Amino acid sequence: MTKEKIFLTILLAVVCFFSAITVNNKLVENNDMARYKKAIEFYRENEYSKAYNEFSKISKFSVLKPAALFREARCAQSSGDTQAAMRNYSLLLKRFPNSSLYPISEYNLAVLLYTREDYFAAKRHFNHLINKFEDTEVAIAAKFYLGMINKNPSLFLEYLKCSPNGRHAQDAIDTLVKWNIKFTNDDNLIIANSYFARNDYNNALFYYQKTSLPYSWCGYARTLYKLGKWNDAKNITIKGLQLYSSFAEADNIYDNIDCFLSLSDTKLTTLRYLYSLNPKAKGADYILYLTAKYAPSSETPRIYEQLYKKFPDGQFSGEALYKTFYSKINQGKYNDAIKLGKIHLARFSNTNSAPAVMYWIGKIYDKKNMPDIAKTYYKGVLSKYPDSYYALRANAKLHQGHKMLENRSLEIKPVVFPIKNKSEANLAIKLAQLEDYDFVKELYKNDEFVQSWIEYQQGNYTHSAFIAREAMDKLEIKPDFKDTRWRLVYPLHYYNYAQKYSQTENPIVILSIIKEESHFNPNAKSPVGAIGLMQLMPATANEIARAYGLPNNLYNPEYNIHLGCLYYAKMRKSLNDKDMSAIMAYNGGWAAVTRWKNKLDYDDIDDFVEKIPYPETQDYLKKVMKSYWNYSNIYTK
Questions:
Q1: Coil, strand, or helix at residue 381?
Q2: Last residue of a domain, one of 489, 524, 543
Q3: What are phi and psi for residue 525, nearest 5 degrees?
Q4: In the predicted model, is pLDDT for residue 292 greater than 80?
Q5: Which long-range contacts (CB under 8 A, 24 or more apart) does 103-107 make?
Q6: Which of 263, 350, 496, 565 has its CA 20 to 30 A from that of 188?
Q7: Is residue 528 situated within a structural domain?
Q8: What confidence tens digit (pLDDT) does each residue in 333-388 have?
Q9: Model's pTM, two decimal places?
Q10: Which domain holds residue 436?
Q11: Residue 598 lies in a domain
């Protein structure tokens, strides 16, 4: 046999060997998937012994093995076999120290050791959880058990402070009372806050009454509001704002102001009274901010300027400075506006008003015939605030002559698991394929994007989009549009119907309207009676359906979108085929948009949008156009 034939024979043998391994691995994987699915069925039917048996058959090299070990432990626990449960938890800790299941497994093991009165071993694990997984749910709960083991009241109080509505909160309070602990003012406040967090207002009131008012007035007043003791609540709020605001958290003060205001029929008079109590109090900035909202439009620039100057570092100063900046533009004081705008960008770069400021500084430089500087600011909006409404407007400025709302076709891209760690993604995806969603939720309870993905997998599209949007809003630096997490924020539900029925209209605009109107909930119904995906009023839908001889079932996604597209087309045609005008009219009505265009004093479309007298319509337009922009970028071919 020649050398070439020997080489080819060896090569063929090697290929056959590895092919056999691949086939065998695939077969093992399929068997593991089938066993896990069968085990889950037994588990849900409370047949824990059968489930345990199936989980135990999962091969030790399977991606599913950590989950199987955890489920085995749970089955054993549910069957009362704590020894087997501890054995499985211990095995998981030993074999998979980097698994996301590690913290909850160690916690469960420690609790089992505690129930078996093996306090020495339990204490070791609880301390390890506190040291290694600080501030996590299991580490906080570990403090409760250590408090029981060490008979340490301070650990109970620490637990209550960290987790006021935790599952062990009442046990911690009952134990403290049983031990006849002499509570300090701080202790009573912690206990009162725990009862308030658990909506037990009568017990909360009992403990708030034992505290020192300067430190507890916010919680005390809120409890009284909840119990309907409004006069007492208002009196404490007044006293708190006058004397004790420095001792309270700002958000709690804002809640009290809102409660106080909700009981008033004369909002502006009430706000001015509250402000007069102590113009330097913590919370006075919020009162001024609300005053600007309720005051006549002629007074708002002065109030916003006062708010910024008096509270330059306050929570509402960013928006107040933006309003002051914009009023300078309206007065033609461009240099003053630029100065204020640059201060805003330096101090409030992460606020919602920052992209607007950057965009309008660019527009000022355009007015001053300094196009190169203007372009720098437009590019800055696209770079720093890529997903904003003003990024769309900046892009239009940089590419003048291009149609702003282009009718382009989107590329359908799947929603995928939003974690890049391959081993974790493999486990989560496998569990999802097996419909073990509860377990995935438990694994990633602190990851909002994963929670959104789970809701998406279960068909809860509205909730999924809400969770993802809130998670994305929390990110100070937004990821590239190629990042798959964007698809959870902007999913393509019903895009096929938008394409089918938009005719000459832009299907991406229709999709964006659906997202902002109903967040993809076909059963949505507004307080005023608007129904379905595109939130059509029944009378409007009846009129369109009769005109075109169409069915009128507004809860049917296809019919709703068909009628909504026809209604949008009608708005657009009546407003000179302008999409921005049609979007405004879809929310505020054709007559209102026409009236604004005839009566408002504005320079261009940007100025017009900022001067829309209906805040809801202004916000709606910006949201729809923002959605259009982001859909176009996320799903661009």
A1: helix
A2: 489
A3: -140, 125
A4: yes
A5: 103/129, 103/132, 103/133, 103/136, 103/138, 103/139, 104/70, 104/138, 104/442, 105/70, 105/73, 106/138, 107/138, 107/141, 107/142
A6: 263
A7: yes
A8: 999 999 999 999 999 998 999 999 999 999 999 999 999 999 999 999 999 999 99
A9: 0.83
A10: 422-489
A11: yes
